[in-house]
Amino acid sequence: MKETNKKFSYKPLWKLLIDREISKQKLRELTGLSPASISKLTRGQNVNTDVLLSICDALDCRIEEIVEVVSEQE
Length: 74
Prior knowledge:
By secondary structure, this protein is mostly helical. It has helices at residues 11-19, 24-31, 35-42, 49-59, and strands at 6-9, 68-71.
C-alpha cells in the first residue's frame, strides 16, 4: 500500500463558522455533537463520517465546504 503524506483539514469549517457568525458552542447545539467530537475537529483529528454529515445537515452545506485534503507539512 502506498504511503501518503496527506491529511484532512477542517479549516474550511472554521472559516464557514466565522462567515456565518456561528460559535463552536452553537455548532454543538445545532448538531447535537459531543464536546469530544468538537475537540477532535479543533485539533484536526479524524472523526466519524456521521459527525461530518451532521455538520453538513445542520449548516446546509456540502462536505467540501467543511473539510479539505492537505499535505502533512501544512
